[in-house]
Amino acid sequence: MAEENGVVSYAGFQVWKIKPSSEGDQQFILDIIDSYELELWSKRRMARDPMDVKVPPRSQTKLKSKLAERKISYVVVISDLQTAIDNQKTKVNRIISNWKPAYDMDWISYHTLNDIYAFLTYLNTTYPKLVQLTNIGSSYEKRPLYVLRISNSSSAGTRPAIWIDGGIHAREWISPAVATYIIQQLVEVPANAKLLSNVDWYIMPVVNPDGYEYTHTKDRMWRKTRSVSSTSSCRGADPNRNFGYKWGGLGASTNPCDDTYRGTTAFSEPETLATSNFIMGKSSQIKLYLTLHSYGQFGLLPYGYDVVYPSDYNDVLALVNNAASRFVNYRYTVGNTAALLYAASGGSADWAKSIGIKYSYTFELPDRGTNAFTLPASEILPVCQDFFPALDVFATKVATCCGAVNSTTTVKPLTTARQLLDDQQPNLDPRPQLRNVLT
Ligand code: 0X9
Ligand code: ZN
Question: Is pLDDT of 200 > 60?
Answer without folding.
Answer: yes
